[in-house]
Design a protein that fits this description.
Radius of gyration: 30 Å
Oligomer: single chain
Helix content: 25-40%
Structural class: alpha+beta
Strand content: 15-25%
Largest sheet: 5 strands, antiparallel
């Protein structure tokens, strides 16, 4: 049975020197630290009622660990935090970490159907004392909360050589960034994690087979119409074929114009009609064609020209060649890479905040449990860029320094991220040992090397950029330090590369920070 930590020392006697007493009770000023660490540990919550967040969330994500041949499986049952071995004063004197032993119950299922259940010690989990301090190797330290850019989608505008260029970034909580840019040549380019630029429509084709054809892409972004060729051929020719002298812009074929008998393609989808193509279509007795009146903003048509693919499979291969240059293109490997990059929740995750912000921005109803990027999100991002270019009312660019586009990563999220790295190393060593060891001698204790997890705990609380020695000049300095926010740290800014805009005080900070 665990003993609750003594958070605040209550003096036996209390003397008041003020004349009238407090005007208002003092609120719990370090609540952000204490509550977030409680959420991380879920110390006093029964094991069957713990939510999949913090430490419990990391363990549920990593386990079960299967062997390479899928015959042996190591499953997670529960975890417990025991009694601390020393009290805080002893830890200060002996230069030790004040923490609870962190033990995990694991079940090993073998190929013959038998299973072994054991408890494994994975290191000491530090205890928070007071309002947010930890005793790490005898010194009192505090983990500062991090202020970073919210996951979601942000739209920005740049001016380059008298040309306004809009762009947007889809930022996940974990995984690859996607950046969509309107280029100087009036096309839509996309970058995945600083890779080479390619057409945004290639990525859309690869995301969903629904957008495999050029016709489906044109219908998605433009209003099309059907022109009858049989009734009045002269009027149809006058509408479809461009005539610059009379101010007729002409039309673009939405789908391939094909001879119904011979199967000959007179005009490819996305190409402008010519007099020759129209005459051939009329001669072949094609009754009607679906067309797009030449659009004012040609960015989608230019992106289609840049695309160079005409199916879902070709798009996957093109992206595979961009992300893995030098590897021979194979469709199965391309599918696997794309699935890992964008459809695997362990590798790509928008998070609850990211999904909420995308849904709010585009007024869509994708379920909030959907953590990966959907084709509808990407389509809406391109449509929003088109609305920005056409200066549609109500469509605005985002200010990335505004507090509405930033959020706090408290200790529960920061510690879970660092521990996840340790558990991923542990997973690799377990799988290697499963392949080498004899099945009869295997048990959870022989498979698990606790060093990778205990080293991750030690690094996060003792040496990470956001773990700082508490400023104990006076109680007010200590309180200020525990409530401090930092934009530095993993996933945040770099002190050397931070620009003026980030360092500056933004109008949204007043009265809030």
């Amino acid at each position: 049975m665990t003993i609750p930590a003594n958070r605040v020392i209550v003096p036996p006697a209390e003397r008041r020197f003020e004349r009238f007493g407090d005007a208002a009770p003092v609120p719990p000023l370090t609540d952000i630290q204490t509550r977030s660490y409680d959420r991380f540990l879920q110390l006093y919550v029964p094991t069957d009622k713990r939510t999949p967040t913090g430490l419990e969330g990391v363990l549920q994500e990593i386990f079960p660990i299967d062997s390479y041949d899928k015959k042996i499986s190591l499953e997670y049952v529960k975890y417990e935090l025991g009694k601390p071995r020393y009290d805080p004063d002893e830890c200060r004197q002996l230069r030790l970490t004040y923490g609870r032993p962190f033990r995990v119950w694991l079940r090993l299922k073998k190929a013959d159907g038998t299973h072994v259940e054991e408890e494994v010690y994975l290191g000491d989990m530090p205890i928070m004392i007071g309002g947010g301090e930890f005793i790490i190797n005898g010194a009192e330290r505090v983990v500062v909360s991090q202020l970073h850019r919210s996951p979601g989608v942000d739209f920005v505008v740049e001016r380059e050589a008298d040309k306004i260029l809009h762009s947007c970034r889809v930022i996940p909580e974990r995984g690859s960034w996607i950046e969509i840019n309107c280029t100087k040549k009036d096309t839509l380019g996309v970058r995945i994690d600083q890779s080479g630029k390619f057409s945004a429509l290639t990525l859309l084709r690869a995301m969903d087979p629904q957008y495999s054809s050029t016709a489906s892409l044109i219908r998605e972004f433009h209003q099309t119409e059907v022109v009858k060729l049989g009734k009045d051929a002269a009027a149809a020719r006058a509408k479809l074929v461009p005539d610059p002298e009379n101010g007729v812009p002409g039309c673009v074929a939405v789908d391939d114009v094909i001879d119904p008998e011979s199967g000959e393609v007179y005009l490819d989808a996305g190409k402008a009609f010519t007099a020759n193509a129209v005459d051939k279509a009329i001669a072949a007795h094609i009754k009607e064609v679906e067309v797009l009146p030449f659009p004012k903003d040609t960015i989608i048509m230019n992106a289609l020209v840049d695309d160079g693919t005409d199916s879902h499979e070709q798009a996957l291969l093109k992206i595979y060649q961009r992300l893995r240059p030098g590897n021979p293109p194979q469709l199965e490997k391309a599918r696997e890479l794309f699935k890992e990059k964008f459809n695997d929740q362990n590798r790509y995750r928008l998070g609850r905040v990211g999904r909420f912000r995308i849904n709010r921005k585009f007024e869509q109803n994708v379920p909030e449990t959907e953590m990966t990027l959907r084709a509808v999100d990407f389509v809406n991002a391109i449509k929003y860029l088109l609305d920005l270019r056409s200066e549609k009312p109500g469509v605005v660019v985002d200010d990335i320094d505004h507090l509405g586009n930033r959020r706090l990563r408290t200790i529960d999220e920061l510690a879970a991220d660092e521990l996840r790295k340790g558990f991923l190393k542990l997973r690799r060593t377990v799988q290697e040992r499963m392949a080498i060891k004899d099945a009869e001698e295997m048990s959870p204790r022989t498979l698990i090397n606790p060093k990778s997890v205990s080293a991750a705990i030690e690094y996060f609380f003792g040496r990470s950029e956001l773990s700082q020695v508490v400023d104990q000049t006076n109680p007010l300095a200590q309180l200020t330090h525990e409530r401090r926010l930092s934009a530095l740290g993993p996933g945040g800014l770099n002190r050397k590369r931070a620009g003026f805009e980030v360092r500056d005080v933004h109008i949204s900070h007043y009265g809030r920070i």
